[in-house]
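Hey,
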Amino acid sequence: MERGLFGLVSGVEILSGGIIRLQVAEAEVNNISIRFLDRKTGEPTKGKTKPETILRQLTTKKGQVYSMLQGKRDVDTVLTMGIMEDVSIIPQPAGDTGKVDLVMNVVERPSGGFSAGGGISSGITSGPLSGLIGSFTYSHRNVFGRNQKLNISLERGQIDSIFRINYTDPWIQGDDKRTSRTIMVQNSRTPGNLVHGNQPGNTSLTIGRVIAGVEFSRPLRPKWSGTAGLIFQHAGARDEKGNPIIKDHYSSPLTASGKTHDDMLLAKFESVYTGSGDHGSSMFVLNVEQGLPLWPEWLFFNRVNARARKGIEIGPALFLVSLSGGHVVGNFSPHEAFAIGGTNSVRGYEEGAVGSGRSYSVGSGEISFPVLGPVEGVLFADYGTDLGSGPTVPGDPAGARLKPGSGYGYGFGIRVDSPLGPLRLEYAFNDRHAKRFHFGVGHRN
């Protein structure tokens, strides 16, 4: 019982001396089958999912003694696939063999459909409504009945625009390491003000990117995962009328090549440690990108970026420390410089207002504590610096805009747990005696 094994006491023999001999039959798994049930009637029906797609998720195998604890873990695993509404395992006697047949009852979720939503862009620095984004998405979560995911989305705002197609196979067939594959195509237009902001007359500058690539991910060890990929990017800047430009108002270049667009082929590697997965748990992310100059005009550079987080519980409060940093070596697009300042960086500053450099480091400490129900209070302090690398960015766009290169902010706020995720409203002061509200959805990166 302690091990959750499924068995039966089939005989009792009382011996002399106060000894009882029990005959215990352990139920060996004879067969495992999948039965699809209708969502409305509960009657057996024909499923869309390939049975082998479900069976390979199970750790319970034929020939082993059936463990109810292991069966529960298998049920949870199948539910995390995201394509089932309900899952249960029913053991049944396999004739007179003393073995059991396992029937897994599954109720499939609708395979996909259209949805609409909205959000807020953290790259917008002015205007109460200019940061709003509307989205329209079509998703299919069980393509070919193999748990493969297709997602087509369009996000549109006053400045932002992103069209994205993602096709993911969470577990490549025939692979025993649970490797996933994602193929993506994306066409985006995002604000360029993080690095090249403060244009005359409050005019806007946008960065257009066309991206296509493939990524492979797999677990490396418990709590660790790794991703490797190859991504092509075609990027350039445009003015508010949509015309390609190669320099901003301060004559700082907007591309590394001197042309209207930069092309790059990136080899990407990322390693992630997630701890327990909770917001207060430890986390570490290392991301490395290498530009491959297969053509002479393609950019050749190496970019390293790392983030770490550690949470410490102090009674009902949570003390969270986070640190991030990065560096770029080689010839890279100026608009790809590390931007410092803003809601997910140094609060108290506008987005990118502290600096934009070839290197950066940002540290943050905050204490959150329960207030009432889903509402939390928070006290925080942030510090960020470009490590003196601002002038090494082509054209020194940070120096032209008199960005300080380093700065700190501190303040207080509230967070509300909602179906959309944590809603953050924070009020911050910076070292230049300025004050600023910050609003965000989701935890700080």
